[in-house]
Design the sequence.
C-alpha cells in the first residue's frame, strides 16, 4: 500500500499575539497599538515563514483581522504567495486590535462565543476586508473552534471556503484547569484528525452528502492521543513550543526527541487508515516571543521551531511527506475519504515509558477509546449518532461549552476505580466463578489492528484470570467496529480453562452517564428499559438504586433526552440475561448489561448500539 | 517594600506544574525569591531550576528516540 503523510503548516501574522500583550507586557497599561508589539509580531511571522521556506515547505498564511489593516503584512503575504506558492487564507483568530475594539466595543475574541448576530457581522466584516485587500475571497479559514451555525453561515455567504481549522482535540476542562480556570476553550469530544463536519454539530462527522457542511475540517494541532487525554493538552502536540511548555526537553543539550517521536507516530497511523496519515503545525507568534516563554529563552523557542520545520523538510526530501496548503488538503481529503470511512489510531505511550496502549475510533456515528491497560475497556464514548444540536455562544444555552457530550469519560466521571462507594463510567466485563468476580479492567494487555471488509477489528492478546482455588481461565477479547453503524461488537472467548467442568459466568456491563464536564448532570429525564416480551421492565430514573432484569432479554437500553441519545446493548450466548441498574445520588450513573455462562472454547458476544433518541 | 514583578523568564510554580497547573510566579526582589500566588511555594532561581529538573522524572522516555510503532 502506498502511504501518504500529508502535512499542513500554517502561520498567522497576529498583530497582538496571545500572551504577548498579557504576559510579556506585564507592568504596562494595555495598548493594542504599541508600535513595538506590532513590529515584533511581524518579525516573528517573517521568521516562521523563513523557517518553512528554507526547508522547502509551503505554508498557509492565515491573515488575521488585525493584519488586514497592516500594509506590510498584506505585502508579505502577497510576496510569499508569488514566490513560494503559499496559500493566502483568513483566520478568525487574532481579532483583537484597535480597529476591532473600536467597532465592536468588546474584549471578546473567540468567534464561537459571540452571539449569532455578532458572528455574522464579524464574518462579513473580516471576509470583505480580506477581499478589499486581496481581490478574492479565501478558500480556507478557521479558529480554535467553529460551531456548526458559524460554518453553515460562512459556507452560505462565502462558498469558496472549503477548509477550516475547526477544533482542538481534547482542549476542554483539562486545559481550563491548567490555566487556573481562566482559559475557556471547552471543546472536548471531537476528532483528532481531519473530518467533514456535519451541518448540525461540528464535532460529529457528516454521514452523507445531506449532512455535509461543505468544508473539510482540520484540528488545531496534531496532539498526543495518550498524553493529551490524561493531562494538559497544551504540552503534547506537534507544536514545538508546546513541548517546551511541557518541559519535555533536555535543559543541557536543548534536545527534544519527543517532538520527532510524536510526528513519527502520526506517520505510523497510515497503517490503520488505508495508507493515509496527517499532521499539522500551527504556531501563533506569541509562542516565539523575544522575551522568552515557559522558562525558555527566545533562542530555544526559535531553535525548536527551526528544528520542527527541518524535520518536516527532511521527510519531504526523502519522499515521506507531502506538504499541502489547506485548500489543497481539502481537495486531497475529498478525493481520498468516503463519508463513513473511520479514522483509527492504535496509539502507544511515547513519553512516560509505560507500555500503555489506547485505540481511538471515530466515524460519523461514534467516537470511542479502548484502553488496553484496562483489558480493552471502553473508557471514552461519544454518541455522534445523535448528531446533537448544540448551538454555542452568547444567547445560547452554551456560551462557552462546545464539547460533544460523553456517555463514558473515565477521567471526568471515574472509570473502574472509585473512592469508597459508587461506580465510574466504563464499558467492561467481569468474569465470575465460585463467588469471585474479576473485572477485565485489571487485566493489562496489548492489541493488534486488522481490517476485515468494512469492519475495523481490535484483537487483544489473551489474558489469564486466576481464581482462589487456582482455577485458571484464559480469555480473549475481540472488539469490532463495523463502519458507519454506531455499533460496537465485543466477543469474549474462553480459550482454555484449567478445570473444564467449571462453570464461568461473564457479566458484560456499561456504566454510563452524560455530560461535558466533571460535574454530574440531572439524571431524572433518563429512562432504563429491559426488552423481554412479557418480562419487559421500565425504570424512570429517580436515584432510587433500583434494578430490573430478564432472562433472554432482547435488549437493555437507556434513553437520554438531554443528549437525544438511545444507548442499548444486545447479546448472544449461553444463558443470556439482560439487566439495568438505576444509580443513586452518590453514584449518579446508570448500568446496562448482560450475564451469560461460558465453557471452554465458547464465545459470548454483545453489541453496544448508539442511536438518536428521537 | 516595592511590589513584586515578573522575573527574567516567566518561571512557573514547580509545585503547581506537578498538578498540571501553569501558574506564572512573581519575583520578590527584597527576598530574591520567586513565589506562587496560588500555593505556598517560594524559592530562589536555583531552587526553581532544580525542581524543574526533578519534575521531569515522570517523562520516562523523554530522552529516547522511538522509531518503532508496530502493534
Sequence:
Amino acid at each position: 500500500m502506498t502511504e501518504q503523510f500529508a502535512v499542513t503548516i500554517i502561520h498567522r501574522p497576529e498583530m497582538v499575539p496571545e500572551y504577548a500583550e498579557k504576559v510579556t507586557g506585564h507592568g504596562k497599561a494595555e495598548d493594542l497599538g504599541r508600535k513595538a508589539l506590532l513590529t515584533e509580531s511581524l518579525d516573528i511571522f517573517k521568521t516562521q515563514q523563513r523557517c518553512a521556506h528554507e526547508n522547502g515547505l509551503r505554508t498557509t498564511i492565515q491573515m488575521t483581522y488585525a493584519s488586514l489593516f497592516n500594509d506590510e503584512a498584506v505585502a508579505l503575504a502577497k510576496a510569499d504567495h508569488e514566490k513560494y506558492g503559499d496559500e493566502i487564507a483568513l483566520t478568525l483568530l487574532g481579532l483583537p486590535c484597535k480597529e476591532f475594539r473600536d467597532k465592536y466595543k468588546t474584549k471578546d475574541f473567540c468567534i464561537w462565543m459571540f452571539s449569532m448576530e455578532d458572528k455574522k457581522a464579524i464574518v462579513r466584516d473580516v471576509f470583505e476586508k480580506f477581499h478589499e485587500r486581496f481581490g478574492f475571497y479565501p478558500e480556507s479559514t478557521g479558529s480554535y473552534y467553529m460551531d456548526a451555525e458559524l460554518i453553515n453561515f460562512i459556507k452560505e455567504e462565502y462558498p469558496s471556503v472549503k477548509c477550516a481549522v475547526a477544533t482542538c482535540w481534547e482542549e476542554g476542562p483539562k486545559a481550563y484547569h491548567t490555566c487556573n480556570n481562566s482559559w475557556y476553550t471547552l471543546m472536548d469530544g471531537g476528532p483528532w484528525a481531519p473530518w467533514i463536519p456535519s451541518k448540525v454539530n461540528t464535532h460529529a462527522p457528516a454521514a452523507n452528502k445531506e449532512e455535509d457542511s461543505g468544508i473539510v475540517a482540520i484540528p488545531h494541532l496534531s496532539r498526543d492521543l495518550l498524553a493529551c487525554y490524561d493531562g494538559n493538552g497544551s504540552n503534547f502536540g506537534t507544536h514545538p513550543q508546546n513541548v517546551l511548555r511541557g518541559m519535555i526537553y533536555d535543559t543541557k543539550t536543548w534536545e527534544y526527541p519527543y517532538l520527532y517521536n510524536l510526528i513519527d507516530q502520526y506517520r505510523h497511523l497510515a497503517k490503520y487508515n488505508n495508507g493515509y496519515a496527517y499532521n499539522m503545525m500551527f504556531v501563533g507568534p506569541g509562542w516565539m516571543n523575544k522575551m522568552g516563554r515557559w522558562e525558555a529563552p527566545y533562542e530555544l523557542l526559535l531553535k525548536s521551531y527551526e528544528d520542527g520545520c527541518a524535520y518536516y523538510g527532511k521527510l519531504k526530501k526523502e519522499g515521506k511527506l507531502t506538504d499541502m496548503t489547506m485548500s489543497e488538503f481539502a481537495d486531497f481529503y475529498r478525493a481520498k475519504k468516503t463519508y463513513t470511512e473511520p479514522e483509527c489510531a492504535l496509539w502507544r505511550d511515547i513519553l512516560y515509558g509505560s507500555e500503555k496502549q489506547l485505540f481511538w475510533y471515530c466515524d460519523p456515528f461514534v467516537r470511542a477509546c479502548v484502553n488496553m491497560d484496562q483489558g480493552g475497556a471502553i473508557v471514552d464514548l461519544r454518541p455522534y449518532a445523535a448528531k446533537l444540536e448544540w448551538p454555542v455562544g452568547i444567547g445560547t444555552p452554551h456560551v462557552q461549552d462546545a464539547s460533544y457530550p460523553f456517555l463514558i469519560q473515565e477521567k471526568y466521571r471515574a472509570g473502574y476505580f472509585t473512592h469508597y462507594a459508587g461506580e465510574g463510567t466504563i464499558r467492561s466485563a467481569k468474569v465470575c466463578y465460585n463467588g469471585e468476580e474479576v473485572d477485565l479492567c485489571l487485566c493489562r494487555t496489548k492489541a493488534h489492528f486488522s481490517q476485515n471488509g468494512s469492519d475495523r477489528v481490535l484483537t487483544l492478546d489473551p489474558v489469564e484470570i486466576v481464581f482462589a482455588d487456582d482455577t485458571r481461565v484464559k480469555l480473549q477479547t475481540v472488539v469490532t467496529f463495523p463502519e458507519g453503524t454506531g455499533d460496537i461488537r465485543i466477543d469474549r472467548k474462553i480459550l482454555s480453562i484449567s478445570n473444564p467442568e467449571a462453570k464461568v459466568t461473564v457479566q458484560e456491563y456499561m456504566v454510563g452517564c452524560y455530560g461535558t464536564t466533571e460535574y454530574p448532570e440531572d439524571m431524572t429525564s433518563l429512562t432504563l428499559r429491559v426488552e423481554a416480551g412479557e418480562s419487559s421492565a421500565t425504570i424512570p430514573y429517580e436515584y432510587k438504586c433500583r434494578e430490573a432484569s430478564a432472562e433472554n432479554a432482547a435488549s437493555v437500553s437507556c434513553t437520554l433526552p438531554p443528549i437525544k441519545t438511545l444507548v442499548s446493548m444486545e447479546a448472544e450466548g449461553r444463558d443470556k440475561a439482560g439487566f439495568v441498574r438505576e444509580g443513586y445520588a452518590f453514584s449518579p450513573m446508570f448500568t446496562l448489561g448482560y450475564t451469560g455462562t461460558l465453557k471452554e472454547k465458547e464465545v459470548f458476544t454483545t453489541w453496544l448500539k448508539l442511536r438518536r433518541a428521537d | 517594600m516595592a511590589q513584586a514583578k515578573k522575573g527574567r523568564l516567566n518561571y512557573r510554580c514547580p509545585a503547581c506544574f506537578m498538578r498540571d497547573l501553569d501558574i506564572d510566579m512573581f519575583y520578590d526582589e527584597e527576598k530574591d525569591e520567586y513565589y506562587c500566588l496560588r500555593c505556598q511555594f517560594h524559592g530562589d532561581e536555583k531552587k526553581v531550576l532544580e525542581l524543574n529538573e526533578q519534575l521531569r522524572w515522570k517523562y520516562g522516555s523523554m530522552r529516547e528516540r522511538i522509531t518503532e510503532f508496530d502493534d
Q: What stands out?
A: Residues 1-51 of chain B form one domain. Chain B has one domain: 1-51. The radius of gyration of chain B is 16 Å.
